[in-house]
Amino acid sequence: MTRALRLGALRVGYEVRAYFRQGDTVFFTFLFPVVLLTIFSVSFSEANFGQTADGDEITAAWFFLPAMLAAGVLLSGLQNLAIDIAVEKSNGTLKRLAGSPLPVTSYFIGKIGQALATGILQAFVLLILAFTVFRVPLPEDPALWGQFAWIFLLGVTTSAILGIALSSVPRSGASATAVVIPIVLVLQFISGIFLRFSDLPEWLQQVAAIFPVKWMAQGMRSVFLPDELVVLEPNETWNLPGIALALGIWFVVGLVLTVLTFRWVRKNQ
Predict the structure, then answer these.
(1) 135: Cβ–Cβ under 8 A, 6 or more apart, which residues?
(2) Which of 24, 33, 142, 239 could form a disulfide with 68 if both were Cys (CB 3.0 to 4.6 A apart)?
(3) Is 266 within a domain?
C-alpha cells in the first residue's frame, strides 16, 4: 500500500503535466466555466436576480458563480476523465501500463489527483475573476469556507470516480467525446447550471435530483448566494444533509461500477 501511494503521488504530477499540455482539453474543461461566467455576467448584466436584505443587488456574476463552480467540478472530474481514459484504452496506453509494475490503485490515485488539482486551480481562477472583475462579494464567515471545502472535495472525488466508470461506455477513443459530452450537457441543463433551477418544471427538478450535479450546484449556492435566495430552492432549504447523502451515494455507486467495469484492455482488443 505504501508503494502504491508513493507511485500514485508521482502519477498525479505526471497526469497534471499531461493535462496542461493538451490545449483543447484545457479550454473545454479548465477554461470553459471561466468563459461562461464572463459571457453570462455580461449578457445578463441588466437582468434582475433579486436583492439582499441590505438592499444590495444580486448581479448575474454573483448568481451564476456557484453554477460555474459546480460545472467546473463536473468537467474536471467526470467529463475529462471519462474521455481521457477511453482514449488511453483505445490508443494502447493502458495496455502498456498493464504490463508495467504500476498498480491499478496508483493509476486511479493519479487520475483522481489530477481532477482534484485542476479543480482547485480552476475554482481559484473563477473566484478571483468574480471578486476582482465582477465585484462579487465572497463569504466572510470561515464556516462557509469550511462548507465549501467539503462540498468541493466530495463533489470532485465523486465526479472523478463516476468519470472513471463512464470511461467504459464509449466503444473507442474516437467516439468518447460524442458519447460523454452530450451526457454532461444534459445533466448541466436539468441541474440548474445554465438555467435557474426554480424555473424548471417540477417533474424535471425531480429527475435532476436523481443525479449528483443538481446537488453539487445546490451546495455551491448554499455557500456563495445570500440566504434570501434560499426561497428558490426545493422546500426552501439548502438541505446540506441531503447534499452530503446524495453525493456520498453516488460516490459509492461510482466506486462499485468502476470495480466491476474497469479493465486495462477492452475485451475486443
Answers:
(1) 59, 61
(2) 33
(3) no
**Quick one: which of 176, 206, 219 has its CA closest to 78?**
176
| C-alpha grid cell, residue 4 | 502504491
Q: Which helix (H) or strand (E) element contains residue 243?
A: helix 240-261
d(CA 166, CA 176): 10
- Residue 85 contacts residue 50 (beta carbons within 8 Å): no
- 82 lies in some domain: yes
Q: What is the pLDDT of residues 124-180, one digit of tens each?
A: 999 999 999 999 999 999 999 999 999 999 999 999 999 999 999 998 888 999 999
Q: Is residue 99 part of a domain?
A: yes
Instruction: Please indicate, yes or no, if residue 64 is contained in any of the structural domains.
Output: yes
Confidence (pTM): 0.93
Tens of pLDDT along 188-235?
999 999 989 999 999 999 999 999 999 999 999 999 999 999 999 998
Q: Are 34 and 126 in contact (CB under 8 A)?
A: yes
Give per-residue burial for 74-108: e unless 16+ CB within 10 Å, then b. Answer: bbbbbbbbbbbbbbbbbeeebeebeeeebbeebbb
Residue pair 175/225 in contact (Cβ under 8 Å)? The answer is no
The residue segments making up the domain with residue 215 are 2-261
Q: Which of 79, 45, 162, 68 is nearest to 124 (CA)?
A: 68
Domain count, the chain: 1
Residue 242 confidence (pLDDT) above 80: yes
